[in-house]
C-alpha cells in the first residue's frame, strides 16, 4: 500500500524556491488611501509637536534631563554588552546591506526591480529629511550637553531626530511595505515596530540620545513609509526606463557580436549599403578565405588499354616541349634500330 509523506513547512518553502522564476501577474502596489492620508497627517502633527515642545524648553526637555541623570547604563549594567550589539540593527550601513540582499533576491525571482528601487527611494528620502532636520536644529547630545535644563539646540549638534531610530523604522518597515500577502504584512509590521522601538530605547539606555530624539526619529521614519505610495509612479517610470536601457544594450550586443565558431567558413552574409543611399542593394561577401576547389577528374571512356598501347600525351602545364620525332613504342621494331658493332 502506497503512503504519501506529509510535507513540513520547510519542505513547502524549498518547493516554492525550486520553481522557475517568473514575474507576478499583478504586483500589489499600495495606494495612497484615505486611511493612509489620515495617518500621515497625524504623524506629521506629532512631528511638529515634538519639535515645538523641545524648542520652547517644555516639560519634555525636563524629562529628557531626568532620564539622562538616571543613567540607565549604570542601573542595568548586565545588559550593556548585549545592547551594544543590538543597536547595530539601527545603523544604516549594516542594515541596508542585509535588507538589500534579501530584496535583490526577490527582484531576481520576480523579474522586477521594484523592491530594490523602493528601498533606494526610501533611503534617499531618509537621508534628505533626517539629515536636513539634524543640521537645521543643531541639538547636542546628552554626553556633550552644556547647560543643565536647556534644550541644547542651535549649538552645532546632529542628534535631533535620532538617525538610528528613523533608520530602523524605514529599513525594517520596508519589508512590511513590500510584503506580498496581508498576513505577512501584519507580521512584518509588528516585527519592524518592535525592532525600531528596541533600537530607540537602546540609544537612550546608552546615553547617546535624548528621549525626545527617539520620539522624533520614530515619527520621521513613519512619515517616509506612509509617503511611499506618492513615490510609486516615479519608481515605475524608473523601472521601465532601466528595462528599456537593458533591452537596447542587449540588442546592440546582438548586432555587433561576432559569428559563432560553429558557422561554416565562407558562408555568405548580407551586406547593405551605409545610411544615406536611397536604395539598399544586398550584396554577398565571403567571410574568410576559402580554398579553391580541385579540378574535376574525368575518366576516359572505353576499354582499359595496356601501357604499351597508350598514346603519350604531354601533361597540361608541363614545361617540357613535345618531341615530334618521338615514335610510339607500338610502331618500333628491332630492324629500325641502327646497328652498331665493332
Automatic annotation (TrEMBL):
Keywords: Membrane, Transmembrane, Transmembrane helix. The keyword Hydrolase does not apply. The lineage of its organism: Bacteria, Bacillati, Actinomycetota, Actinomycetes, Kitasatosporales. The chain crosses the membrane at residues 37-61, 81-104, 116-135, 159-180, 187-208, 214-231. Residues 114-229 form the Phosphatidic acid phosphatase type 2/haloperoxidase domain. Residues 330-342 have a biased composition (Polar residues). This is Phosphatase PAP2 family protein. InterPro entries: PAP2/HPO, PAP2/HPO_sf. PANTHER family: AT30094P, SPHINGOSINE-1-PHOSPHATE PHOSPHOHYDROLASE. It comes from Streptomyces sp. R35. SUPFAM superfamilies: Acid phosphatase/Vanadium-dependent haloperoxidase. Residues 293-342 are annotated as: Disordered.
Amino acid at each position: 500500500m502506497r503512503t504519501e509523506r506529509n510535507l513540513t513547512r520547510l519542505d513547502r518553502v524549498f518547493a516554492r524556491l525550486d520553481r522557475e522564476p517568473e514575474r507576478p501577474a499583478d504586483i500589489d502596489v499600495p495606494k495612497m488611501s484615505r486611511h493612509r492620508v489620515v495617518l500621515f497627517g497625524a504623524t506629521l502633527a506629532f512631528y511638529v509637536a515634538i519639535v515645538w515642545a523641545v524648542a520652547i524648553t517644555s516639560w519634555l526637555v525636563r524629562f529628557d534631563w531626568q532620564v539622562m541623570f538616571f543613567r540607565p547604563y549604570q542601573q542595568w549594567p548586565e545588559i550593556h554588552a548585549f545592547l551594544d550589539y543590538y543597536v547595530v540593527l539601527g545603523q544604516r550601513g549594516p542594515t541596508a546591506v542585509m535588507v538589500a540582499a534579501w530584496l535583490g533576491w526577490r527582484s531576481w525571482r520576480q523579474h522586477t526591480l521594484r523592491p530594490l528601487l523602493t528601498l533606494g527611494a526610501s533611503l534617499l528620502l531618509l537621508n534628505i529629511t533626517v539629515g536636513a532636520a539634524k543640521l537645521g536644529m543643531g541639538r547636542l547630545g546628552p554626553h556633550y550637553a552644556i547647560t543643565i535644563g536647556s534644550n541644547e539646540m542651535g549649538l552645532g549638534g546632529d542628534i535631533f531626530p535620532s538617525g538610528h531610530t528613523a533608520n530602523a523604522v524605514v529599513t525594517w518597515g520596508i519589508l512590511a511595505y513590500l510584503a506580498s500577502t496581508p498576513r505577512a504584512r501584519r507580521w512584518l509590521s509588528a516585527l519592524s515596530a518592535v525592532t525600531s522601538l528596541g533600537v530607540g530605547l537602546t540609544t537612550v539606555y546608552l546615553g547617546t540620545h535624548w528621549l525626545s530624539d527617539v520620539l522624533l526619529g520614530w515619527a520621521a521614519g513613519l512619515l517616509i513609509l506612509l509617503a511611499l505610495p506618492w513615490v510609486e509612479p516615479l519608481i515605475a517610470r524608473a523601472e521601465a526606463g532601466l528595462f528599456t536601457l537593458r533591452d537596447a544594450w542587449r540588442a546592440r550586443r546582438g548586432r555587433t557580436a561576432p559569428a559563432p565558431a560553429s558557422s561554416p567558413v565562407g558562408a555568405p552574409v548580407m551586406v547593405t549599403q551605409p545610411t544615406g543611399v536611397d536604395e539598399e542593394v544586398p550584396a554577398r561577401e565571403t567571410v574568410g578565405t576559402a580554398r579553391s576547389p580541385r579540378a574535376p577528374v574525368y575518366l576516359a571512356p572505353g576499354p582499359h588499354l595496356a601501357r604499351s598501347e597508350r598514346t603519350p600525351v604531354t601533361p597540361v602545364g608541363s614545361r617540357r616541349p613535345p618531341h615530334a620525332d618521338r615514335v610510339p613504342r607500338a610502331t618500333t621494331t628491332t630492324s629500325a634500330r641502327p646497328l652498331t658493332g665493332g
